[in-house]
Amino acid sequence: MKPTSPKDQLNNRQFPRLDANYHVAALPNFRGGCARHEVPSFRNISGEYFRHEARGEFCSELLAFGAIVVTAAIPVLSNVHALADFLRSIGSL
Fold it and tell me: How many domains would you assign to the chain?
């Protein structure tokens, strides 16, 4: 709303004066469609993530995962060896 002038106040109007001069912004390169025509697939999104963002962290996380797998595999292999010894001792009875 624009401020009213003293002349408008003398007319004793019921409604305030409104600015109705609306100008549309010009967009010369706008085609009326979507800005992007192709929808990226999950494979492309994950490929971009590993190419740009996670490359440095991936090696350290891979080493940590390998350490966890080796740490978990040692007791499992020990139990398999103990089970084989147990079955051998039962079989000889």
Answer: 1
* Tens digits of residue pLDDT in 7-23: 655 555 566 666 677 67
Q: Which of 39, 9, 4, 36 is nearest to 19 (CA)?
A: 4
Range list of β-strands (E), 1-93: none
Please give the single-letter amino acid code of residue 17. Answer: R
- Tell whether 23 is covered by a domain: no
Compute the C-alpha angle 65/66/72, nearest 5°: 90
Helices and strands (H and E) in the chain: how many: 3, 0
Residue 54 DSSP code:
S
pLDDT (average), residues 37-58: 78
Q: Are 2 and 17 in contact (CB under 8 A)?
A: yes
CB contact set of 8 (below 8 Å; sequence gap of 6+): 17
The domain containing residue 87 runs over which residues?
55-93
